[in-house]
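Most newcomers find our protein records easier to grasp once they have seen one. To make this concrete, we reproduce a full record directly below:

…
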Amino acid sequence: MSDHVPPTEVGGPGLPAGAPGVEGSEVSMEPQSVVSSRPSRRRGTALIAGAAVAVLALVGGGIWAAQNFFSAGPDPAQAIPANALGMVRLNLDPSGSQKIEALRMLNKFPSAKKDMKVDKSEDLRKSIFDMFVEHTDCEQVSFDKEIKPWLGSTLAAAALPKGKDGVEPIGVLAITDQEAAKKGLDQLVQCTAGDIGVATTEDWAVIASSQSVADAAVKAATKSPLADDKAYNKLVDAAGSEGIATLYVAKAASDQLAALSDDSMGADDGFDAGSPMMTRKQLRKMGFTKKEIRQFMRQQRRDLNDPAFKDPEFSDSAPNAFTAGIAKAVTNFDGMAATIRFADAGMEFESAAGMKGDSLYAGATGVEAVSTLPDDTIAAFGMGLNRQWFDVIKAASDSETFDDDVASLSEESGLAWPEDVTTLLGTSFSFSVSKDFVADDPSGQNPPMQGWAFKTKGDAQQVSDVLDKLRAQVRPRDAGNLESEARGDWVVVSPDSSYRSELLAGGKLGETSAYQSVITQDKPSSVLFFNFERASELLTSLGADSKDVAELKPLQALGLQTWQEDGLTHSLMKLTTD
């Protein structure tokens, strides 16, 4: 362990072996089980990865109210280099208002109080320490004597660039006494990881996979800390007021995340590698034309969906270039920050992200189709779609098979893509569920589903023409699900005639206390709403356990809203209690 910083820079030339930005640094990102009392480098890496896991695990633990009522802790971004790819920060001593709101919320759940043992006198830092050393040889280290006197109230896990595509994890702890911290951390190093690197400053301790990495990280942060980075501050500030935890992902990490998305979505081949189907890429290499490939892929689907063909490996929902494009258009961000906080005896998750390319959202029209739903609506989703949504998805997909996939969608659905879909979704649309929702009966002996509806704003005649195309593609017994009525420029699709009439008459969901408790933006681009107060009977009818339903009783509503402001896409998820 050292508080000496050698003349090296993170991610730059002249770095020592093993420092961030250096090829050949061998660091495992996965925690390793301790199988020997002898210190090892692998166990040092486990210590760092374990710290990151501890941060994430405790975010969901609901025990931030366990601290005494003091001010919020310092920002560990002061001790993290500005070129960090990402950071997760946990405030072990959040503001007094956060603790009050946490206790207000948790006290409404009897089982939560019993399981979490919420106690203002309990030290959350000790809980983390106990988790940290649970499977080590550190029984002789006393938290109260060797750790508590110097340990601050903030910790973080960060990812630094290593080489071209690698990632170097570090942990950061706030400290109040540098000399005491070095002694206490040295004891932990000796009984857990041996050659792990620890470097300290007056206010911070940095833990890394080696001493050279820790020293280089401290030097780089001293010269250019993440806390002074304009992009970091813009995103974190845009994510709203400070809470119990903060997540930050830098612009530089977007390309790596996009590559992972490509792999997971099978963007290159059009289908998952595990599927028994021939891929478009394989067929192209064999010399087939685009037309022949479309015909072959269509026949493969028919063959593999034949009841006589039984292969558990096959999934008809395998993604293609179009669905991969949708995923990219939604997730292809250019830097992001998020905050988790307690508020109004509930919880909030707020984020702000810079998006690459145009947005799928259309300004502030998403709320229009939702706020006029009936007052007793249980669940609803509404969105205003950019009229150029298809171009946005195509640009995000960037796949040579995109046009082929869309041609297949057109042929299979009987719709003209994207024209008919744009007409159907209109300028604002919603899906909603009422208290009378009834699931479909697979036997076909009962009527189609009841108590749901699709509502859209647009040219009623053109929407009706598109619906006629869809009705022609479904089984006769399912055609009732597509019954529709229109009034002015609103069209409602639902098998339930009374529910259609109710939606066309208009309601005042947007004026209810449950809705207003979770949807706080005047004109969001999209809205997701769930009313817990109205849902208990429905959940019981759907087979939910009575004990689980009872646990939901203190909850009032859940809402998710998105909007665009200052070049950023914002989202706010709120969970409120009654």
Summary: The first strand starts at residue 86 and ends at 91. The chain has three domains: 41-228, 271-318, 358-385+426-577. The mean pLDDT is 76.
